[in-house]
Amino acid sequence: MDNIRIAHTQTLDNVIMAVSFAEAAGDISLIYGDAGLGKTVSLKHYARMHPDAIYIELKDCDKSVKGVCEKILSRLGKMQSGTDRVLVDAIIECLTETPRLIIIDEAQHLSVRALENLRAVNDVTETGIVLCGNPTVYDRMHGRGQAHFAQLYSRIGIRRHIMEPPLEDIEAIFSRYSLDRECITYLHQLALLRGGIRNCVKVLNIALRLMDNEKDPLNIAHLHSAAQLKNGE
User: Fold this and answer.
1) Domain spanning 10-162: which CATH class is it, in words?
2) 105 by DSSP, 3-state: which?
């Protein structure tokens, strides 16, 4: 989605609000929703506009305390090794001296111990932390009412559930392509049916390639053909 310019959308507004709150209040914000709805694009936009913010995108191999702490320390310019306690203490020392917002994308990969240690970092340093991921991250933080998760869940300042995009968001995202109403409506249907905005972007990119040698503007037939190629319909 990086080849699509950032548009003013409902998702962008929700993400910016949650991230700004975490930074201003020194609190924890939780952003969650299905894949492909623009969460990552919005977070990266915020990070570009605020260079002091630490943005990290996790993979499954980063889920441990060691994994996430090493990523944070690397962004802080500190190549630290050692036990979990040493790594957490090193982060606390850095952030106590120079507070910086921490944005963690794909946070559903985090283990419970990693989440607990991030909460501890927030407790000690009052540094804002943003946790963003798919609905699994909410389930994990909520703990389905288990007492073990109560302290962790109660520390969340703001929770934002990112939903399917309204038609207005699709219009804003694809405004530079001068698509007619039929094309916009079809892309919106794709976003609601499967894959969110990400699916729309991929379908549009395929459609643009299909019409490379044509003089006519992109139309609904191009999008239908692209969707068949993309989704195997």
Assistant:
1) alpha beta
2) strand
